[in-house]
Amino acid sequence: MQKKVMLAFTGGLQSSVCLHWLTRKRGALVTALIVELGPETRAYELGEEAVRSGAAGAHVEDCREEFIREYAFRALRASAIYERGYLLSGALARPLIAEVLTRLADEDGFHSVALGTCRTSNDASRFRSHVRRLAPHLDIIAPDQIPPLQSRDAALEYAEKHGIVPFEGTSAALSYDINLWGASVAADPSLGTWESLSEDYYILTVSAEAAPEQPEALTLEFERGTPVRVDGEPMAPKELVEHLNTRAGRHGIGRVELVEDRLFGLKSREVYEAPAACLLMEALRALEELCLDYATLQVKGDIGRFYANLIYSGGWFEQLREAYDAFLEVTRRHLNGTVGMDLYKGRAVVTGRSSPDSLFDGDALEEFNGAIVPVRRNCPL
Ligand code: ARG
Predict the structure, then answer these.
(1) Which ligand 1 atom is at minimum distance from the Cα of 123?
(2) pLDDT 10s per residue in the chain (381 long)?
(3) Which of 298, 253, 312 is nearest to 280 (CA)?
(4) Does residue 14's CB lie within 6 angstroms of at least one atom of ligand 1?
């Protein structure tokens, strides 16, 4: 019987190779699922492309609003940053993609799901964890079973042999993963770690040198740890992130180059761009400094790191995340207020903060400065 497979399709090299291999070599009936996560909307073109390339049909789901509201903003409130600066754009998208994929596979009576990614990628491992948690009855066609997905070179070779041209806009030379929360791309390993990277690696930001010579002021207002207004104007989550990506990207904000520890124990050199996300993290941190007490800040800092590690390793659907979220539900109560910033030459610099929940008491500080009393912090840490 012909195998029916629902494939999470991005139009990139590996998912195009995967689609080709499943339809041509395995004779499978493949439906491509395109989960739109921005920043550009090209999902319908991708759907058409998938059908032209052999898929029996395509589903397009626009999840941009949900992605920002339910995934990215949770990570923001957790200050979830992996290692020295990865804001998890790619890792945060995987549970949502897996959620849509498994739901539609069940609805349409599919027994198999697939994700076109390299065997050794973090995404392959995350995908397996997410699908196992959400739909253990589904059969996963893992990259291990697909010869051209054993390495990037194998995928390139297969694509060349079969005349597969990845969808326009995704470079064959570099494998970008991009959504509203940021872009990521692994540096070519042959460059090593010394050679500086060309501007080709950056797609959402300009370099600091090319950024405007004048700072641009901006105010951000938060309600319970969620950004809700920019310069006094109310914005829905997706709109707010789109707006900030453009404004911060113009100033070169949000570039991070990292030598990162992958799940399989190897280090890789990665390039990230997350203009809105970096700016929002910076702003919320400024508000937390003002509104959260010392002990809560300490614990919250640790939870942010654990939260990031959990997302990175594919644990979004674990009970532990719910437990962290319960903590964050409490701490966000007092995260109301406004942060002023200057965007300038690659940085978002906090210039001011104000909050009805502020714990800063200038009068008490002045009075205290004049008295001679032993300093004690009233907290257990
Ligand atoms: N290293 C990051 C991660 O593991 C980014 C990977 C992005 N994927 C890609 N195909 N470029 O989440």
Answers:
(1) 4
(2) 889 999 999 988 999 999 999 999 999 999 999 999 999 888 999 999 999 999 999 999 999 999 999 999 999 999 999 999 999 999 999 999 999 999 999 999 999 999 989 888 999 999 999 999 999 999 999 999 999 999 888 999 999 999 998 765 555 567 789 999 999 999 989 999 999 999 989 999 999 999 999 999 999 999 999 999 999 999 999 999 999 999 999 999 999 999 999 999 999 999 999 999 999 999 999 999 999 999 999 999 999 999 999 999 999 999 999 999 999 999 999 999 999 999 999 999 999 999 999 999 988 888 887 776 655 666 656
(3) 253
(4) no
Q: Which two tokens stand for residue 263?
A: 């799940």
Cα(313)–Cα(124) distance, integer angstroms: 11
Regarding the beta carbon of 15 and ligand 1, being less than 6 Å apart is answered no
CA–CA gap between residue 221 and residue 215 (Å, rounded): 20
Q: Which of 18, 84, 117, 121 to mutate to test the pocket of ligand 1 (most atoms within 8 A of CB)?
A: 121
Residue 273 Cβ < 6 Å to ligand 1: no
- Helix (H) or strand (E) segment spanning residue 320: helix 319-331
Tell me, in angstroms, the distance from the centre of ligand 1 to residue 324's CA: 24
For residue 12, give the ligand 1 atom closest to its CA.
10
Ligand 1 near 91 CB (within 6 A): yes
User: CA distances (Å), 364 to each of 113, 187, 344, 369, in order?
Assistant: 61, 52, 34, 8
Which atom of ligand 1 lies nearest, measured to the CA of 260? Answer: 1
- The full set of domains in the chain, from first to last, is 4-172 (3.40.50.620)
**pTM for this prediction:** 0.95
SS3 57: strand
